[in-house]
Amino acid sequence: MSRSFYRLIRNADVPPIRFHDLRHNVASLMLAQNINPKIVKEILGHSDMRVTLYKYSHVLPFVH
Q: Residue ranges of the alpha helices (H) in 1-64?
């Protein structure tokens, strides 16, 4: 996986990025678009919702 991914990045002539960075960006964008955190948790494969909410709470709107 990683060799193929990095080969694609190199051939696309884009700035280097780690696969994990893409995963983090996608999760952040989904939560910022108010996609249910349970769905994001399932997509990321987290076993516990607390992991998802802890790692990505910076993009969630504040609840008053």
A: 2-12, 19-32, 37-44, 49-56
* Domain ranges for the chain: 17-59
Q: Mean pLDDT across the stretch 9-26?
A: 90
pTM of the model: 0.72
Q: Report residue 21 as tokens.
A: 């960075």
pLDDT of residue 42: 96
Dihedral of the CA atoms 5, 7, 10, 12 (nearest 10)? -70
**Residues near 63 by Cβ (< 8 Å), separated by ≥ 6?**
none
